[in-house]
Amino acid sequence: MWGGRVQVLFRLWGLRSAGVPGRRLLSGSAASEKGSSSPRCWNCGGPGGPGPGDGFFCQQCRALQPPDPTRDYFSLMDCNRSFRVDTTKLQNRFQQLQRLVHPDFFSQRSQTEKDFSEKHSTIVNDAYKTLLAPLSRGLYLLKLHGVEIPEGTDYEMESQFLMEIMEINEKLAEAQSEAAVKEIESTVQDDFEKAKEILTKMKYFSNVEEKIKLKKIPST
């Protein structure tokens, strides 16, 4: 129920960037610095750091490289930066990455690579769990765009919330042209604030849902 409402607003925002794969978030200065100075392998000193393809190993000596702190979860998991995620593809990517970086495969390698493996594996697990669930996925999308919902936030809700979302859904379903979709987009103000409002509601209902599950567990 809640996932559908969040998806509406992310679809509206997505008119400006729909279908764009997860990108690394870099400031102008960081991007300039990245372009002018490629990282070097910690092991062999070779240029370029991680090679093409998997992006985890040196292209010369194949040593495992440290995690890239600028890489977001969508890029890591090879997903479009969108509220809609192919969970089957996500699971396959998760399994693929764990076969590459899981600590069990580095027991005979250097301590440095063992440490990097632990870090990579933790990040891959976090990315998978975050993108798998609609609530955490939506919150992460907002975070990438500078909007966060602090724990315990008592965010004000509009009384006409449900009706507005239903009307937007209907108009989107009936829209037959890009012009019609753009007209709908123009009527929606503060897209991410509205998404923040919806996701806050999702957090409260998710908390209640967890309490219900605990109540259902028979006491021993």
What topology does this entry show?
Layout: H1 2-17, H2 28-36, H3 73-76, H4 87-101, H5 111-132, H6 134-144, H7 161-174, H8 178-187, H9 191-216
Helix pairs in contact: 1-9, 4-5, 5-6, 6-9
What does this entry show, briefly?
With 220 residues, the protein is an all-alpha fold. The chain contains 9 helices and no strands.
Structure report:
- It is a single chain.
- The chain is mainly α.
- It has 9 helices and no strands.
- The radius of gyration is 21 Å and the shape is extended.
- About 11% of the residues have low confidence.
Q: How many E-type strands? A: 0
Overall 3D shape: extended
Oligomeric state of shown chains: single chain
How much of the sequence is in beta strands?
Answer: under 5%
Structural class: mainly alpha
Mean pLDDT, as a whole number?
74
Q: What radius of gyration results from the CA coordinates? A: 21 Å
Low-confidence stretches: 12-36
Termini separation (Å)?
33 Å
Helix content: 55-70%
Largest sheet: none
How would you describe this structure in keywords?
58% helix; single chain; mainly alpha; 220 residues
